[in-house]
Amino acid sequence: MKPERNSSFELLRLLCIYGIIVMHIWGSIDSAMTPANTAWHVLANSIGNVGVTCFVLISGYFGIRFDLKKLIRLDLMVIFFTLLGTLALGDFGVKALIKACIPVISRQYWFITCYFALCILAPFLNQIPERLSRGSFRNLLLVLLLLFSVIPTFTTYDIMQDAGKGLAHFVMIYLLGRYLALYHGNAGYRRGRLVSGFLLSTAIIFALDGTLTFLHDGVVYGTFARDCSLFIIASAVLLVLCFSQMHFTNRVINRAAGDVLAVYVLDSFIRALLERAVDLSTYLTEWYLPFLVLGYAVVVVVTAILLNEVRRLTIGRIEPWLSGILAAVWDKIQTVLLAVANRLLGVFLQKR
Questions:
Q1: Burial letters for 71-80: b for 16+ Cβ neighbours within 10 Å, e otherwise?
Q2: Are 49 and 224 within 8 A, CB to CB?
Q3: 8 A C-beta contact, residue 172 and residue 145
Q4: What is the pLDDT along the chain (352 residues), one digit of tens a residue?
Q5: Is 158 left (phi over 0), alpha (psi -120 to 50) or beta?
Q6: What string of DSSP letters covers 158-177?
Q7: What angle do CA 63, 263, 173 make, to 5 degrees?
């Protein structure tokens, strides 16, 4: 019998996706709100944007083992819900439907696209900590953090020009997760200190972005809450270490955590449909707007989880069979492509 997963990290994943949805909801509301509600928006960004970095850190912490069939099943889920959502919103345009059929390639969801690329690179990335000493591995991480986090944080000039929403950030954070698992996984840190560090980092983000926001007449700034921000990375590391100190098992949490990527895919579609019934922009000046946002996010997350559970129990049952066929087809295509490439390379070298 397969042992149950430790639910602490699964709980963290659920909390992260909830924070991301809350942040997305605030971002979709008109910015012309009261100073108090603007402050809540800044706070939501300061906390919620650790979610993506936490997801990648967790992947690095446990290590990704490349599994083509699993990736294909994930792609099938994304295609299914993207097509369903596109049609539900009444977009029957040819371009929209084509993009819905190739959501990973078309980068319809930047996180999913980068995650696919990370999974493909994982077998090679996993060799880095195996071949490098602890000191060399640490120095590599310091160089990566300097280039892709420290410089963008303190100069606001982002080398990759993607605010950390790209493959370079994913690779860096994945390797950081591997380092934490190898050298800090059983360090026995005090949870109180980790929580205090997280709160301090969040307070710094809130103070800096809050200052920028109110200096610019309430236009919400997220400069220090970007994925590449050193403070966001620090917050995510502290959260992962904190939850690594917890050990419990809960089947409901584990099951729901398996729906996290579906929640991410369905988020924009569900919100677009909900906005036809309840437009939060009409409550911009109300003191209870933050509570409406939190409740709205609960509805989005629960609805997405239920939809994915229905998919799992219906069309999802054929995905293992279909993914096996597609994986076999890809293996044959890959064999042919490699043979052709080797042939062309041989001809080229002979001519030279």
A1: bbbbbbbbbb
A2: no
A3: yes
A4: 445 678 999 999 999 999 999 999 999 987 778 889 999 999 999 999 999 999 999 999 999 999 999 999 999 999 999 999 999 988 888 888 888 889 999 889 999 999 999 999 999 999 999 899 999 999 999 999 999 999 999 998 888 889 999 999 999 999 999 999 999 877 678 889 999 999 999 999 999 999 999 998 888 989 999 999 999 999 999 999 999 988 899 999 999 999 999 999 999 999 999 988 888 988 988 999 999 999 999 999 999 999 999 999 999 999 999 999 999 998 889 888 888 888 887 777 775 5
A5: beta
A6: -SSSSTT-SHHHHHHHHHHH
A7: 30
Contact 219, 35 (CB under 8 A): no
CA distances (Å), origin 137, targets 115, 145, 146, 243:
22, 12, 14, 24
Cα–Cα distance measured from residue 212 to residue 156, given in angstroms and rounded to the nearest whole number: 13
CA distances from 94 to 91, 97, 136 (A): 9, 5, 51
Query: Cα separation of 277 and 7, whole Å?
Result: 35
Q: What is the pTM of this model?
A: 0.93
